Amino acid sequence: MSAPPIAHSLFRLLQYQQLRTANLARPLFYRQYHASKRRDVVKPFLLADIGEGITECQLIQWFVQPGARVEQFDKLCEVQSDKASVEITSPFDGVIKKLHYEPDDMAITGKPLVDIDIQQELSEADQAKLGDAGDKAEGSGVKNDQEAEQATQQQEIEAEGVSGEDTVQSEIQQPSGQEARRESRGTHGSLATPAVRHLIKEHKLDIEDIDGTGRDGRVLKEDVQRHVTQGNKTASQPSATRAAVSKEDRKVPLTPVQNQMYKAMTRSLNIPHFLYSTSADMTAITSLRKKLKASAEPGQKITHLAFIMKAVSLAFIRHPMLNAALNTKDPKKPELTHKGSHNFGIAIDTPKGLLVPVIRNVQDLSITEIAAEMRQLSEAARNNKLAPGDFSGATFTVSNIGSVGGGVVAPVISEPQVGIVGVGRSKIVPAFNEHDELIKKEELVLSWSADHRVVDGAECARCAERVKTLLEDPSLMLVELR
């Protein structure tokens, strides 16, 4: 004869209470758990240095939430450094326990980024990924082991049949509607770039009210503009009332790109700039481009800038002083290093600001290869796909200010480089040929800046004039190509 239901329930309840007492022996049918500090412990995963001496990153979005299970190489979050956007992946399997930052927060390199319940034996390499914070969390890890063990044993009791009115009520409550809405808001808020969130704040909008049309529901700039336009159409306030309302000042933090520009340009104030400008007749280059276009492969486009970069590289063979780096860490003993490779930073205007990725070994590339590299970097920059390594190692910078309509410019040198050239927009101007006949020619201005501490004005002028000569007679490039 089986025990009455009430007696059975009391027996199960007593059994559960006994399990909560650490000093009592466990029944034999319960599973034994590993008590090692390296298994089933919650440890913080530190934000590693992503290169170039970066000390902080802006957190763009989380790909996980607390309670989510992740495997090795699963994406955890996306961060924006001073130069590029990087996706951080999990180095091991586990369960997400805590996120240390919210979207838009500045995450510090070497500090905890996320807490992960690691449910596996950790190798020494994995321990190194956790950093010193992993050792500091050992005490809390043992406590979490015991709590997890008790929670698992409670689930086993309930699985045996203690349910309905006879079960012990769980102390874990479901999140309230307000908390659920807050979590949803955080998720939606992460699906937008800093530039879009800045635009949303500027219009004093709520991202939850905007329908995102991007990937995974990401809110795009066009979505915000469309929402603003629709709001203006439905606004019922008189225009006179709107005109009477004065706009308030707004204080906003610098974006990562602006922050990097602020630091770099502040350092550049210590550099005495020697400025030199010259105009080149690009008529012959334009004629050559038209011939090449007729036989070019689909999608292949060779711009003026590819010819200019090759001409600068050829000029540096005769004038290596401008392809150098100045080390001023010890002001009493500055060092000048002549660079063997021509790694040219190319300034690209993007929605996030000016980015300067690097085309490497220009001296070894053909004009067609330079053009292909520029297309690839420009596309990656505008799609936010550049990696930190794409920005390192520049020995000289080419700034195409002509892409936005400029002519003459005073470009600013980025240390430790000692030179930069600004490329203006080409335009048709009247001129006289050798027979005093009025003709049209395509003129383009090149504006040079050199570090006058190590580069004298005559050397900069000679290099600039050599580039002009090569551009005005492209056949001379063939003589010096290797």
Distance between the termini: 99 Å
What does the average pLDDT come to? 78
The CATH architecture term of the largest domain is 2-Layer Sandwich
CATH C-level category of the largest domain? Alpha Beta
What structural class do you assign from the helix and strand content?
Answer: alpha+beta
* Beta content: 15-25%
Name the overall outline. Answer: globular
Largest sheet: 8 strands, mixed
Classify the fold: give the CATH topology of the largest domain.
Chloramphenicol Acetyltransferase
Low-confidence runs of at least 5 consecutive residues: 21-39, 132-145, 155-190
Total tally of structural domains: 3
The helix content is 25-40%
So, the CATH homologous superfamily of the largest domain? Answer: Chloramphenicol acetyltransferase-like domain
Q: How many strands in all?
A: 18
How would you summarize this macromolecular structure in one to three sentences?
The chain is α+β, with helices and mostly antiparallel strands and 482 residues long.
Protein model, in words:
Helices cover 35% and strands 21% of the residues. The chain is of the alpha+beta class. The strands form 4 sheets. Strands 9, 12, 13, 14, 15, 16, 17 and 18 form an 8-stranded mixed sheet that branches. Strands 1-8-6-3 form a 4-stranded antiparallel sheet. It has a 4-stranded antiparallel sheet with strand order 5-4-2-7.
